[in-house]
Design a protein that fits this description.
single chain; 83 residues; mainly alpha; flat
Length: 83
């Protein structure tokens, strides 16, 4: 019934359901900037959007440090099992 309703626009579409990404290989895997890359960013901090990258990077680092200092891997595993 949902497919029928979706086909005739009776229900809202989940556009993300139809997106296909051709490249499955993520070589970066969320690796943070190297020290050399951070140095380059600070050197170019006055360029458009570089300050934004620095802010997001610093915030993400701060959040990760807070998370890892507050909870152990075993505690995290136990919390995830509750979900």
């Amino acid at each position: 019934m949902y497919r029928y309703a979706l086909q005739f626009d009776i229900v809202a579409k989940n556009c993300a359901e139809f997106v296909r990404i051709g490249n499955e290989d993520d070589t970066e895997s969320g690796v943070p900037f190297t020290a050399e890359e951070r140095q380059k960013l600070w050197y170019h901090k006055d360029e458009p959007f570089v300050d934004t990258i620095l802010i997001y990077h610093d915030e993400a680092q701060d959040i990760n440090e807070r998370i890892y200092s507050l909870i152990t891997t075993e505690q995290l595993r136990q919390e995830l099992e509750k979900i």
